[in-house]
Amino acid sequence: MVMTLVPVISFAIFANFSSGFRIWKAVNREVPHEDAALFASKVAVELGGALRYAGIPFSGDGGRVTFCAPIQAAADLGGSNAYGQVDYVYDAGQKAILREERDLNALHKEKEPRVTRVLERVEACEISYFYEDKSRQAFAWNDSWIPEKPESMPTAVRFTFEIERDGQRHSFRRTAPVLAGS
Questions:
Q1: Which residue in 2, 8, 111, 160 is a FRET match for 134, CA 20 to 30 A apart?
Q2: Domain locations along the chain
Q3: Predicted pLDDT at 8
Q4: Is 153 helix (H, G, I), strand (E, B) or coil?
C-alpha cells in the first residue's frame, strides 16, 4: 500500500513544483513593452517639467537631449527643490539609454554627472524634436535642437528605439511634450 502511494505523492509534489516554477518564470519574464512604457513615463514627467534657464539651455541631437529640470540634490543645495542639468543619452557601446544628472554646483565645478541606466538592451535610438518653423508657418520634426535663443525649447521630443529581448527586436516610438516649449 505504501509503495503504491509513494509514486502518486511524488508525482503530485513534482506537478505542483513544476506548475509553480512555470508561473514564477512567466511573472518574472522581462516584457519590452513594460520597459518602454516605464521609460516613456519617466521621460514625459521630466520633459514636462523642463525649465527655461539660460545657464542650462535646452539642446540635443540624435543621441542626446539636455535640459534644466527639478532634481534631487544634497539638502544644503535644495534637496528635492533643487534644479540641475538632466541629459538622456544613448550609449551604443553599452546598448543603453543613460540618464545623467548634475546639480548647479556640480555643473559649475565641472564635476562628473550621476549616471543611471534607464533602459537596457537598446539596439538603436534616435531622438528628434518637434518645433514651430516660423519661416514656413508650420510645425516640423528635426533631428537636432540647437536653440536660436538660450530660452527657446521644442514643443515635444520623440524617442524612437529598438529593444532586444529573447532574440527579437521590438520597435517603439514615444513622444513627450515639453510644456514650456515654443
A1: 160
A2: 30-177
A3: 60
A4: coil
What single-letter DSSP state applies at residue 111?
A: P
CA 112 vs. chain centroid, Å, equals 20
Which pLDDT score, from 0 to 100, does residue 155 have?
94
Instruction: Give Rg (Cα) of the chain.
Output: 23
**CB-based contacts of 82, cutoff 8 Å, min separation 6:** 70, 71, 72, 73, 103, 104
Cα gap 89→96, rounded to integer Å:
8
pLDDT greater than 90 at residue 113:
yes
Please give the pLDDT value at position 13.
66
In this predicted model, what pLDDT tens digit does every residue of 133-153 receive, in sequence order? 888 889 999 999 987 777 889
Neighbour tally for 12: CB within 10 Å: 10
